[in-house]
Design brief:
It contains 17 helices and twelve strands. By secondary structure, it is α/β, with parallel strands linked by helices. The strands form two sheets. The protein has a ten-stranded mixed beta sheet, sandwiched between helices. A two-stranded antiparallel ribbon has the order 2-3.
Length: about 450
């Protein structure tokens, strides 16, 4: 593999679905291949990895093909006791070189893509002995910011992984969802649509770190700041998902800003943040940003992209920094309020010390331990706690020592070996944590956006 350069998704024939794929059920496996992964595309990741092309659908229920990268610890053999984690990368981009299926591969030219920074989280799950699925939840069209469809792609990726024989999983495999920031937003969308879109899956819980909460409010807050690039990439993705925004943009925004949006469609995330820092859409329009977002066409989209209208029927862990400089804690407080009011069991941890990016890594042991407890069928805690630091517990400190050793293995290309698997307890109900904590089923919650394909052939 020395000197090998993988093709970008928009140039790689692997991503093109076979004729007639749209007649296959959601999650149907269309194609697979063995791949090599690497830290920053350079240092080989010593694990077993494959990529799966499978049938899914977009926001409007239109059939499409999507890709997930599935991984096992090095030397692991197929084992039906093995749980599966679906890890939704932040991505925060629409350029194909930022898709996890490309950015995580050995030889990828993707320095500045967010998924490359998240490799330690994937490795930490593998080190627990779990299988991992990393879906391209933005789709092959790079529709970053679109609601609900990241969930369809993640859930269909789970279906494909369960059916992929080399992983050795089956329909009874317990599954957990995990993501941070843009990946946290994709995770809550997955949790929201799961019961109706993929009711057969045994999803035991979801961890969402800093899951945006209110994308419209986040856009206003980041516009014109050091993080304006995030806002611009988000807007560029929404133009792809909502064609009705195109005439609004061309009528209300000057050509210079549209040119910058075009650059946002093809650039890597971190370089874009530097290049687009301080850009203010209001300076390229006759209206300020509040007026532009107040247009009826924009209000319809802003309402649609805000999560929290549907209560997930699984336990959630939500982690957020009180002083987060990118995602406002008030937006996450409000999202948690919407979920708990609708009956979802939420454990909400508010960290006083951490800012946005450090919290993703500081909270790794806490998030992993929560997932491990759900796999062990331990009842999930609920309620809100504001702590000085999520790292300031003995269990978390032990986890950080383990993470330090794991990071050393990553950077020196040593194998990620699994921990011994423990038998999964019998599950008398789909979510025993909910049954044991609450003693009752969650109340039904009306779904304002019916999901397109809940049943499989």
């Amino acid at each position: 593999m020395s000197g090998f350069r993988p093709l970008r998704p928009d140039r790689d024939p692997f991503y093109r679905p076979p004729a007639g794929f749209e007649h296959r059920p959601p999650g149907a496996l269309l194609r697979s291949r063995v791949v090599e992964l690497a830290v920053f595309g350079i240092v080989p990741l010593r694990v077993s990895a494959w990529q799966l092309l499978y049938r899914s659908c977009d926001l409007n229920g239109e059939p499409e093909a999507s890709v997930t990268t599935v991984l096992l610890p090095r030397g692991a053999t197929p084992d039906r006791r093995r749980p599966l984690v679906s890890f939704q990368c932040a991505i925060d981009a629409i350029a194909p070189q930022c898709f996890p299926s490309y950015a995580l591969r050995r030889g990828a030219r993707a320095l500045g893509a967010i998924p490359q920074l998240e490799m330690p989280l994937v490795a930490a799950a593998l080190a627990r002995g779990w299988a991992v699925s990393v879906p391209d939840h933005g789709g092959l069209g790079g529709r970053f910011g679109a609601p609900r469809e990241p969930g369809y792609r993640a859930l269909d990726g789970i279906r494909a992984a369960l059916a992929f024989e080399p992983l050795g999983l089956d329909a009874s495999t317990p599954v957990a969802l995990w993501g941070y920031s843009g990946g946290g937003l994709a995770t809550v969308w997955t949790a929201e649509v799961a019961a109706r879109y993929a009711p057969e899956l045994e999803i035991v819980g979801a961890v969402a770190g800093s899951p945006v909460g209110d994308p419209g409010a986040a856009f206003v807050r980041m516009n014109g700041t050091l993080f304006a690039g995030f806002a611009m990439v988000f807007l560029a993705g929404l133009r792809r998902a909502y064609p009705q925004l195109e005439p609004v943009a061309r009528a209300r925004v000057r050509a210079r800003y549209l040119d910058m949006l075009a650059k946002a469609e093809v650039g890597l995330t971190l370089p874009l943040l530097v290049r687009l820092a301080g850009r203010d859409v209001g300076r390229h329009s006759d209206h300020d940003v509040e007026t532009l977002l107040g247009l009826p066409e924009m209000q319809e989209v802003i309402t649609d992209i805000r999560p929290g209208e549907v209560a997930p029927d699984m336990p959630l862990l939500i982690v957020q920094g009180v002083n987060d400089e990118i995602i406002a804690v008030a937006d996450i407080d409000a999202l948690v309020g919407r979920y708990t009011a609708a009956g979802t069991h939420v454990h909400y941890l508010r960290d006083r010390l951490s800012t946005h990016l450090p919290l993703q890594f500081i909270a790794i042991p806490t998030m992993l331990d929560w997932i491990a407890d759900r796999f062990a069928a331990i009842p999930a805690p609920t309620g809100t706690r504001t702590v000085r630091s999520v790292a300031a517990t003995r269990r978390a400190l032990r986890g950080h020592r383990t993470m330090a050793r794991l990071t050393a293995r990553l950077l020196t290309a040593r194998p990620i070996r699994p921990e011994p698997l423990v038998p999964q307890l019998d599950r008398p109900a789909r979510h025993p944590e909910v049954a044991r904590v609450a003693g009752a089923q969650l109340p039904p919650v009306p779904n304002p956006h019916p999901d397109p394909a809940p049943a499989r052939a």
